[in-house]
Amino acid sequence: MAEGMRAYVRDLGVGHALLALKSVVAALVVVFVPLLLRNERASIPAILLVYALDVGVGAATVPLFRRFRVRRHLAIGTALYALGLLALAWLAYPWGPVAFAVLDGLTGGLFWVPLNHLCFRGLDKKRNGANSGVYFLIPAILAIGLPPLGALLAAAYGFPALFTLGGVLMLALLPVIAAYAPDETHERSPADALRAFKGLKSITFVEGALHYFRSAVIPVAALLFLSTEAEFGGFSAYLGAIALLASLWLSHRSDRDPRRMRMVAPLLVGMGAACAALGALRSAAPWLLVAGAYAALDTLSAPLRLAISLDRREHDMGFWAMREVFLNIGRCATLVLAALAIWAGSLALAFLLFTALMLGYVALARRKLAHAY
Q: Does domain 2-372 have CATH number 1.20.1090.10?
């Protein structure tokens, strides 16, 4: 019994350590992908389609996994991500972004599914809110100071050097994985996992769209107002700083009341209002302020949205695999639609699409997730 508890604590530490190290690379390097592509003269719709290809590959490949070998898959996923960053650094446009998107997409099943399993397994379900808060808090903390540092490095040495550094840092994770990740195998039937995910498919689709509105659509749209490494790094740090500690406080508080949607619903309505405003505003200062307000509301609601799903199902490897599939389907579909809307000349329509999803989440959750009310 004691040995089993020590194993759970060890795996939890390994999972969050890998999450933190991956988040370092994301905040220091990967946050600049939109600016890198813009400097290559890619249009905003084209940049969104790169992100769509990335998550589309993830949605298509995760269902192919019937067996998850935790240590091996984490190592392969880390190596592929490093190669993707090196491709961005050294391959000409558009081959570098395409290679990165495909390689990063493969990490959905190879890296994120086993990582999420390590981060949440064995935890007390009565503390799903607090556990989700910690999961989101780690990258949020790192997103404050590292983007400005990345901007300084990019301005001094160029994007190829910065993205090469990111690839090297990812490769440095391999000894950590080899030494500390559990050497275990989990088998699951995709059909059984899909049946067990009943009631969460549509809500996870929408949640995936909301994830990438914050992490992809807003940064890419910010290119309309920001053009230098310092501006973009400062904007990323600004978003990362907003509502940092409040997210942990609110998610912990929600554990005292299982009806989490009572807190999530008003946050989503506020997010929808901010999203609609972002589609209408055309001046830099108001747009950036509203983007910050949106980030605050999203940061507050994201751990609660994850906790709602964790409350509903046992979070075994099959749960995380199906969650990754439907998150990525939602991300891919909405990114493609947003890219088409912007290509047709309507930024407002693209943002209204996400506004409708935010408001629709409330109605959908009321029907699908009665336990959260």
A: no
